[in-house]
Amino acid sequence: MRVVITGAGSVGRSIARELLHNGHQVLLIDKDADDVQASRVPDASWLLADACEIAVLEEAKVHECDVVVAATGDDKVNLVVSLLSKTEFGVPRTVARVNNPKNEWMFDESWGVDVAVSTPRLMTALVEEAVSVGDLVRIFEFQQAKASMVELTMPGEGPYIGKRIAEIDWPDDTVLVGIIRDDRPIAPSRDDAVEAHDELLFITTPESEDLLEQMLSPGHRVPRGAE
User: Fold this and answer.
1) Is 137 helix (H, G, I), strand (E, B) or coil?
2) How confident is the model at residue 9 (pLDDT cuts 50, 70, 90)?
3) pLDDT band at 146 (very low <50, low <70, confident <90, very high)
4) SS3 for 11?
5) Minimal CA–CA distance to 186: which of 174, 175, 201?
6) CA-wise closest residue to 41 among 69, 68, 67, 12
7) CA–CA dist 83, 91 (Å, integer)
8) 45 touches 27 (CB < 8 A)
9) Are 10 and 73 in contact (CB under 8 A)?
10) Which of 68, 154, 161, 170 could form a disulfide with 174 if both were Cys (CB 3.0 to 4.6 A apart)?
11) Residue 117: is its pLDDT beyond 70?
12) Considering Cα of 124, then 130, then 132, then 135, what sign does the dihedral take?
């Protein structure tokens, strides 16, 4: 997979190193990067230029990449890069970093963003996931698909403890994609049974989130917006 990352700060370099480790091709674009930064990710290709310029994205051959990651510390830049990548170059997937949570509402398909990653939201989700049992925690959103990944840690008892996956009728537009049990991930099959304290990972829609939570943890919390 070929990935272009705009912004070679600590976030962009960290993403690049992980992708390179997994065998992907990475190009980093940053107008302020220096030799010290480049030496920290020597296996990546580098382009010292302003990613907001169409000519730069053409030079980077963005139209040939699979994913563009807009990872700068400036929300305006990340939005412009996402929009140009999607509308001018037809990039299949864009991932954009949200620096200011107040700007999160703009990071959607109208700005060419497929996946928006807000560090404060991720940190909140991880904190909630670590301490909450029976609460549905939204991990992140797929903006273009109008779907989200959510997690729920099963309570010690409930109507679905011991039930086989094949016997459970999930809400509409909801797919169980993973189970974490005893700190190990499991790809769920029809014959797997739900156990107490399993962490269940779903892809679902916002409309189905409350129903899913009430189904698996009845009476645990009132629906969102009803407090």
Assistant:
1) strand
2) confident
3) confident
4) helix
5) 201
6) 12
7) 10
8) yes
9) no
10) 170
11) yes
12) positive
Q: CB within 8 A of 23, min separation 6: which ones?
A: none
Give yes or no for residue 227 having a pLDDT over 90: no
Separation of alpha carbons 149 and 203, rounded Å: 5
Q: What integer pLDDT is reported at residue 132 of this predicted model?
A: 61
DSSP-derived 3-state class of residue 141: strand
Map tokens 């939201």 to a residue: 121
Tens-place pLDDT, residues 29-76 = 998 877 656 777 889 999 999 999 999 999 999 999 999 999 999 999
Give the residue from 96, 124, 128, 122 showing the smallest Cα distance to 109. Answer: 96
Sheet holding 45-47, edge to edge: 45-47, 25-29, 2-6, 67-70, 93-98, 115-118, 136-142, 147-153, 199-204, 175-181, 184-186
Please, what is the Cα angle at 110 between 105 and 111, to 5 degrees? Answer: 80
Sequence-distant (≥ 6) Cβ neighbours of residue 196 within 8 angstroms: 154, 155, 156, 157, 161
Identify the DSSP state of 111: G
Give the DSSP H or E segment for 117: strand 115-118
Report the residue count for the chain. Answer: 227
The values of phi and psi at residue 54, to 5°, are: -60, -40
